[in-house]
Design a protein that fits this description.
The complex is a heterodimer of chains A (354) and B (509). With 354 residues, chain A is mainly alpha-helical. Chain A contains 14 helices and 4 strands. Chain B has 3 domains: 236 residues, P-loop containing nucleotide triphosphate hydrolases (Rossmann fold, 3-Layer(aba) Sandwich), CATH 3.40.50; 166 residues, P-loop containing nucleotide triphosphate hydrolases (Rossmann fold); 74 residues, no CATH class. Chain B has 18 helices and 24 strands. In chain B, the strands form 6 sheets. Chain B has a 6-stranded mixed β-sheet, sandwiched between helices. In chain B, strands 18-21-22-15-23-24 form a 6-stranded mixed β-sheet, sandwiched between helices. Chain B is globular. The chains are: A mainly alpha (354), B alpha/beta (509). At the A-B interface, α8, α9, α10 and α14 of A face α10, α11 and β20 of B. Chain B: It comes from Rhizobium straminoryzae.
Chain lengths: 354, 509
């Protein structure tokens, strides 16, 4: 990411308006990066600016953005959720199972579900895994990193056990049960925009509202900023933590559904390393790993930077090995710039003090 | 006198400019060896900056520092330490996860062959230091297990271990009990006899007059008074500090006390090593009454408040508000019932430092601005503005981080947050800790006013003068038990003797 040169050694910080402009620019750095990345590929990659390409990119971004939204809440609350990729995989398998077989009651009958019911069940599955994470962290005092690392393995293993490691193919559904619309989650469009993108937009708007305009959101920031202080102020810390992990599980379940529907198949390895992309998007968007700081808008922009970078490099024919290197460099650059911003901000606050 | 106390370090025309503000303006400062050099001033007057300059944490923009007659420039903190300047910061710089001995030697570990840490040697030196400080603290206990007062002693031991010739103490007594303060003063006396130059910063003026040999008063980065301590009295200090003499404690406003609003019955908290930290305490507070709870460090006062505020699941006992039993086990439940706590440690328990002033003020009462899920930012901001005005909090903007405020203003934010929940009982743990004299007086006035409005206040303090001047009734705790109850106007000696029935036991807890 190219960003303004940090003001090294500018002891006499000059007129404070200059400092505040720089600070504003740094605060908007992810957005600046998005514009730069976009402009670069618009020139460098043929066909990048076509409508069809935009749709494809936003479809790709939607998946990572959904996970990153849930991840943002978790990180803001002072935790981390490594299990989202596995939850995606497990939820995709649950969805595939339900579409293909329904629930066998072992009395010669089986329960079959329509698309909406499948979606609800899968969402509940994701939320339940999030609940397990939350209980491990709040009631059993397991460190979030370890707890979710554990569920990462358990959920992935469970996904593999579902099918003995095989893929559930041909999730076309059955019109008799009302599950033939399952494929629409991934392939349907509204006003020319894929449904998955709409889902991302709705979840993002809801999450942004939650973060800024509800007591729950404020409490998430308070818990991440100072857990003891929040508890003494009457914030129910355990409930907030349960909520963020359940919300993260819910987001992962949505992604599992969308992927299973897009591919019309579910593979137990779906979603491997997705958690890392989600963390990357959140961090790129200005979320502080130490908690208390981060915005949904920033995370969405971060997800787009990563997504455009990835797709644009593919279109330019850059090898996927180099893509990985570049993605890593961008993330490191983002955090370095974040540190510069923190220092500058501290100096501005110091100015304000007598 | 000057011959006995040679000047060890001087600053001439010292200036320190931060972007946008000048913290020190042409300061001339002489530090005399073998004496206690006292430094006073309101928060923001430049005391801390001056100390940081001497300790090498900050560098002067203009002017010179002379140490033992030769000009020096301390490039950083460790450079200053090598040249014999030690500092104990007001905010403790310790590691709760390391042992006492490891804390004392952090960064300068005693090693065998440069690799292997010689634990035995470290523990031995640490133990000797603790004996010198008259503290029964095992050097191998994790620091996190100690009370703040004991941690402060460790911080002082750390500076002593560096063989400092100049020792800067920034408000060392703010968290210490009377007994610990006596120990500290004895240590300071020893050190000055050995020729160490002490710089002593404190807001407790009577303390300064007692132990100081020389005094320097700062106001807005300018030295407004510097002289030998002989003949200095509190009015002189105050007039140099704030320009005109002012009273620290507000006059008692006599108003009728109401009904009993809060009663604690038989509250006890088992200690980790058997026995009780809070030992079956019962007390009551009437509406409009200020009850001062005095006691030494480790007497169980803070723990009692924490039990009341549902911080210890193991605590037993009954609480009644206006006669009705409080059964809520959660903090939010107790806040709803009308309890509010101002914690002792603002930074750790009172505030979310990275959040804005507005968000901190309203954190406990977000429900008031919420319909369904929706939080009305407009109503919230309006309420925050109202409380900023009511508490007279000096701020530039509601949206600035609360960490940008001075200690006194931060404390007002904490109190504002508690008051916004419309409490009936206010629990205050060391409400005047670490804030300047002007802000202190305001906080005390606020307490009086709140009591006059019918609030019941239970406040904990280890400042004797404070408890005598502010309380309608004084309760004394020692070893987890209530050991005395006095009406307003009780004799100081009685209160102290009630607080120290078994002094040694208290300290070795």
């Amino acid at each position: 990411m190219s960003s303004p040169v940090p003001p090294h050694g500018s002891k006499a910080a000059g007129p404070s308006s200059q400092t505040s402009t720089l600070l504003l620019l740094l605060k908007m750095r992810t957005f600046v990066a998005l514009i730069l990345v976009f402009a670069f590929f618009a020139f460098a990659a043929p066909n990048f600016l076509t409508g069809a390409n935009m749709l494809i990119i936003s479809k790709h971004v939607a998946l990572n953005a959904l996970l990153a939204i849930g991840m943002t809440f978790v990180i803001v609350s002072g935790g981390i959720d490594l299990s989202v990729g596995s939850i995606v995989g497990l939820c995709a398998m649950v969805a595939g199972w339900l579409v293909l077989y329904g629930i066998d009651l072992r009395i010669g009958w089986s329960l079959q579900f329509n698309t909406l019911e499948i979606c609800v069940i899968v969402a509940i599955a994701g939320i339940l895994i999030g609940l397990i994470n939350g209980i491990l962290i709040t009631k059993l005092n397991v460190a979030p990193f370890i707890a979710t690392l554990g569920t990462l393995y358990v959920a992935r293993g469970a996904a593999l056990l579902f099918s003995d490691g095989r893929t559930f193919p041909n999730l076309a559904g059955n019109p008799d049960y009302g599950s033939d619309t399952f494929k629409l989650i991934g392939s349907g469009t509204w006003l020319g925009v894929p449904l998955s993108v709409w889902i991302m937009v709705v979840v993002a708007v809801l999450a942004a509202y939650l973060a800024t305009r509800t007591p729950v959101g404020r409490h998430i920031y308070a818990v991440g900023g100072n857990e003891r202080g929040a508890a003494l102020s009457g914030v129910n810390v355990d409930r907030i933590k349960l909520f963020v992990y359940m919300f993260s599980g819910f987001c992962a379940a949505l992604v599992g559904l969308i992927i299973a529907s897009q591919l019309q198949a579910s593979h137990p390895a779906t979603g491997e390393t997705f958690e890392l992309n989600a963390i990357a998007a959140a961090v790129l968007g200005g979320t502080s790993m130490s908690g208390g700081r981060g915005r949904i808008g920033g995370t969405i922009v971060g997800a787009f930077v990563i997504g455009i970078l990835a797709d644009g490099l593919i279109m330019m024919g850059v090898s996927s090995f180099w893509q990985t290197v570049i993605k890593g460099l961008v993330i490191i650059a983002a955090v370095v710039v974040d540190q510069v911003q923190q220092k500058l901000q501290a100096r501005v606050v110091l100015q304000g003090q007598a | 006198m000057n011959a006995a106390h040679p000047i060890g370090l001087t600053i001439r025309s010292g200036s320190k400019i931060y972007p946008g503000t000048q913290a020190l303006k042409n300061v001339d400062f002489d530090l005399r060896m073998g004496a206690v050099n006292v430094l006073v001033g309101e928060n923001g007057a430049g005391k801390s900056t001056l100390m940081k300059v001497i300790a090498g944490v900050e560098q002067l923009n203009g002017g010179t520092i002379t140490l033992d007659g030769r000009p020096v420039v301390f490039s950083d903190r460790s450079d200053a330490a090598r040249q014999g300047v030690g500092i104990v910061f007001q905010e403790l710089n310790l590691f709760p996860n390391l042992t006492v001995a490891e804390n004392i030697f952090v960064g300068r570990e005693k090693t065998v062959g440069g690799v292997h840490i010689d634990r035995a040697a470290q523990s031995a030196v640490a133990r000797a230091l603790m004996q010198r400080l008259e503290q029964e603290i095992d050097p191998d206990t994790p620091l996190g297990n100690l009370r703040i007062g004991q941690q402060q002693i460790v911080e002082i031991a750390k500076a002593l271990a560096e063989d400092a010739r100049i020792l800067i103490l920034d408000e060392p007594t703010s968290a210490l009990s009377a007994a610990e303060v006596e120990v500290l003063f004895r240590v300071i006396g020893d050190l000055t006899r050995q020729g160490v130059g002490i710089v002593y910063i404190s807001h407790r003026l009577e303390e300064l007059i007692r132990i100081g040999d020389y005094i320097t008063v700062l106001r807005d980065g300018v030295i407004t008074g510097a002289r030998s301590m002989e003949g200095v009295d509190i009015p002189w200090i105050v007039s140099n500090m704030i320009g005109s003499a002012s009273k620290e404690f507000p006059k008692m406003e006599h108003h009728a006390l109401g009904e009993e609003v809060f009663r604690v019955e038989d509250v006890s908290l088992p200690g980790p090593a058997g026995g009780y930290v809070v030992d079956h305490v019962s007390l009551s507070v009437r509406s409009g009454e200020i009850v001062g709870l005095y006691g030494l460090m480790g007497a169980g006062r803070s723990e009692l408040l924490e039990c009341i505020m549902a911080q210890h699941p193991a605590a037993k006992g009954r609480l009644f508000i206006a006669g009705a039993r409080v059964r809520e086990r959660s903090v939010s439940g107790r806040i709803r019932r009308g309890l509010a706590l101002i914690p002792e440690d603002r930074k750790r328990d009172g505030l979310v430092q990275i959040m804005s002033i507005r968000e901190n003020l309203t954190l406990s009462s977000l429900g008031d601005f919420t319909t369904g899920f929706h939080l009305s930012l407009k109503a919230e901001a309006a309420k925050a503005v109202e409380f900023v005005r009511r508490m007279a909090i000096k701020i530039a903007s509601l949206e600035h981080p609360v960490s940008s405020l001075s200690g006194g203003n931060q404390q007002k934010v904490v109190i504002g947050k508690a008051l916004m929940t419309n409490p009936r009982i206010l629990l205050m743990d060391e409400p005047s800790r670490g804030i300047d004299i002007g802000a202190k007086a305001e906080i005390f006035r606020t307490m009086r006013k709140l009591a006059a409005d019918g609030l019941g206040i239970l406040f904990v303090t280890s400042d004797l003068e404070e408890v005598l001047a502010l309380s309608d009734r004084i309760l004394v705790m020692a070893n987890g038990r209530l050991t005395g109850a006095f009406p307003a106007g009780a004799a100081a000696a009685d209160v102290i003797s009630a607080a120290t029935p078994h002094l040694n036991k208290v300290q070795s807890r």
